[in-house]
Amino acid sequence: MVSWLCDKCGYTFKADAPPEVCPSCKSDCSFVDNTCYTPDCAGEPFDPQIKGEK
Ligand SMILES: [Zn+2]
């Protein structure tokens, strides 16, 4: 399972693949994989340092 971050509204959700349309803002936006792969964020499902790059 991968955590995805909407680069428009910042909505995060988990899915195997990013959806075509954001379930939150319903926009055609791109998604950032912000899954936390490091032990630093134990307990956090995603990395708080990864925000949508604009
Ligand atoms: Zn969105």
Descriptive notes:
This protein is mainly beta and 54 residues long. The protein has one domain (2-41). The protein has strands spanning 2-6, 12-15, 31-33. It has a three-stranded antiparallel β-sheet, with no helix packed on it. The protein is elongated and about 30 Å long. Bound molecules: zinc ion (ZN). Zinc ion binds next to loops. Zinc ion (ZN) binds at residues 6, 8-9, 11, 22, 24-25, 27, 29.
Layout of helices and strands, plus pairs?
Blueprint: E1 2-6, E2 12-15, E3 31-33
Antiparallel strand pairs: 1-2, 1-3
Principal-axes geometry comes out as: elongated
Largest sheet strand order: 2-1-3
- Distance between the first and last residues' Cα: 25 Å
Low-pLDDT segments, ≥5 res: none
Give the biggest sheet.
3 strands, antiparallel
What's the helix count? 0
Number of strands: 3
**What's the Cα radius of gyration?**
11 Å
Please bin the fraction of helical residues: under 10%
Number of domains: 1
- Percent range for β-strand residues: 15-25%
What is the H-and-E element order?
Answer: EEE
Structural class: mainly beta
What ligand species are in this complex? zinc ion
Average pLDDT score: 81
Short précis:
The protein has about 55 residues and is an all-beta fold. The chain has strands spanning about 1-5, 10-15, 30-35.
Fill in the keyword field for this structure.
54 residues, mainly beta, 0% helix, binds zinc ion
